[in-house]
Amino acid sequence: MAMNTASKPMHQTMPVSKKRSASPWVTGWNRFFHNKLAIASLAFLVLIATLCVLAPLLTSYDPVKINLRLIHKPPSAEYLLGTDKGGRDIIARLLYGGRTTLLIAVSISFFVTFIGVTIGSVAGYFGGKIDNMLMRFTDFIMIFPFLIFVIVLKTVIADSGILVLIVVISVLGWGGIARLVRSKVLSEKENEYIMSAVAIGCKPFQVIVKHLLPNVASTIIVQAIVVMAVMIGVETGLSFLGFGVPANVPSWGNMMSDAISPQVIKNQWWVWLPSAIVITSTILSINFIGEGAKEAFDPKG
């Protein structure tokens, strides 16, 4: 008699697919790219920067050469935005001036962020006397009126150029970022992964660079973006007053200096209005990018 062997169910071990949770950076970038205002602002900023970089290919007019026969010419088919008090094409001045202003803003933002992050992270990680000493020095830097110092320096050194402006503002403008990074590092270094890194023998430099700073990088990026917007305004204000970029170098601030004359403001709008619109739009776009990054990378979001 044939025995009916009960077929036992075969349990096949199938790999369980586990969805890995997206890293905070991936989540943050996804949030950022869903922020339409931030993306539009980023596209506008990239467009402005690209046009300024390609200035030699986009215009054949010299932004520096003075032509007395073309002074204050209104917009026409030949000069679409007219000419300024030196007979120079406004569009050429905008493009070449943007290269100067954006270079200054980006350079200062980089150096200010680098100095502030270095001092803030060292102070927050080591604490104690090192923290106290660095923070007292930071307090001195923050209360030091760097704009007045720049004006005095430009008055004493009449032929000081763009490099002096970048160095002075960079050396005196990092205090806020240093304090912010210090507070972030103070709270972050109490986490277990930092204690574990210290326990296995990681050197302070390794702990700061490989473990602490990547976890506060979103805050650093947002602050760097904000500083860039502020520095465009600083360059514009100093150049408007005659203490910023040398007058023979095109910049958005130097273009705005023509608006000192009431007659120019009333009757020759093309001399100052295009630069005012570009400056305002650029600063707003950078601020919108910064706000978008702040919301996207906020861990509480």
UniProtKB/TrEMBL annotation:
<feature type="transmembrane region" description="Helical">
    <location>
        <begin position="137"/>
        <end position="156"/>
    </location>
</feature>
<dbReference type="GO" id="GO:0055085">
    <property type="term" value="P:transmembrane transport"/>
</dbReference>
<dbReference type="Pfam" id="PF12911">
    <property type="entry name" value="OppC_N"/>
</dbReference>
<feature type="transmembrane region" description="Helical">
    <location>
        <begin position="162"/>
        <end position="181"/>
    </location>
</feature>
<feature type="transmembrane region" description="Helical">
    <location>
        <begin position="220"/>
        <end position="249"/>
    </location>
</feature>
<dbReference type="InterPro" id="IPR000515">
    <property type="entry name" value="MetI-like"/>
</dbReference>
<keyword id="KW-0812">Transmembrane</keyword>
<feature type="transmembrane region" description="Helical">
    <location>
        <begin position="102"/>
        <end position="125"/>
    </location>
</feature>
<protein>
    <submittedName>
        <fullName>Peptide/nickel transport system permease protein</fullName>
    </submittedName>
</protein>
<comment type="similarity">
    <text>Belongs to the binding-protein-dependent transport system permease family.</text>
</comment>
<keyword id="KW-0813">Transport</keyword>
<keyword id="KW-1003">Cell membrane</keyword>
<feature type="transmembrane region" description="Helical">
    <location>
        <begin position="269"/>
        <end position="290"/>
    </location>
</feature>
<keyword id="KW-1133">Transmembrane helix</keyword>
<dbReference type="InterPro" id="IPR050366">
    <property type="entry name" value="BP-dependent_transpt_permease"/>
</dbReference>
<feature type="domain" description="ABC transmembrane type-1">
    <location>
        <begin position="102"/>
        <end position="290"/>
    </location>
</feature>
<dbReference type="InterPro" id="IPR035906">
    <property type="entry name" value="MetI-like_sf"/>
</dbReference>
<dbReference type="InterPro" id="IPR053523">
    <property type="entry name" value="Oligopeptide_permease_AppC"/>
</dbReference>
<keyword id="KW-0472">Membrane</keyword>
<dbReference type="GO" id="GO:0005886">
    <property type="term" value="C:plasma membrane"/>
</dbReference>
<dbReference type="Pfam" id="PF00528">
    <property type="entry name" value="BPD_transp_1"/>
</dbReference>
<dbReference type="InterPro" id="IPR025966">
    <property type="entry name" value="OppC_N"/>
</dbReference>
